[in-house]
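Appendix B. Chain record.
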Amino acid sequence: MSKPRPAYQRILLKLSGESLLGKLAYGIDFKTALSIAQEVREIHDLGVQIAIMIGGGNIFRGIRGTEEGLDRVSADQMGLLATIMNGVALQDALEKQGVFTRHVSALEIKAIAEPFIRRRIVRHLEKGRVVIFSAGLGSPYFTTDTAAALRALEIKAQVILKATKVEGVYTADPLTDKRAKRFDSIRYMDVLKRGLKVMDATAISLCKDNDLPIIVFNLKKRGNIKRAVLGEDIGTKVY
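Structure tokens predicted for this chain:
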């Protein structure tokens, strides 16, 4: 039996730090990391080139630090360090699945991760290695959403897969508003006009200006990453 044909050959998967929580209130549930790694391996086996941008909210979220009195720069730097910890965990989980990976940090931390060098990253992808991006863009005031959009453009990814805990993009937060309705698809400009929390406005604008589609889907449903890559009708497409 022939393998199913993916709709995208090179993707950037955006994972929040919270995706690694599992049933924990804080930190990294390694069983959950392994489960995500298994799904990534399934699309890797289809020949898809995969980059992953990982967040850090399961350990420390910069904006929360500022609410508690931390300087914004210091708080964001702590958040960037949290993403590196998640990157190490995800790399270990992927390699336990037999997937060769490269961990790339926007902060210089040679003992743990490579620096971002675009041509080298593209070569890793061409050789079938999964690339994990951590530390966002290495600067405060920029979210990992913005970092995901920029890195996706730099490596010429065909789509951003935005993994969330809900089914897609809604008119309101479906976890608090039962009347919220899901969009099958929505234009970038409508996301911005409505103030919908898909990704931050900078990330959406970058994607809009460069015609980079975003697929927002529920990570908690097993197999959804593969369904998105195969072009099945899941979640919400932002275009």
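Further analysis of this model is presented in Appendix C.
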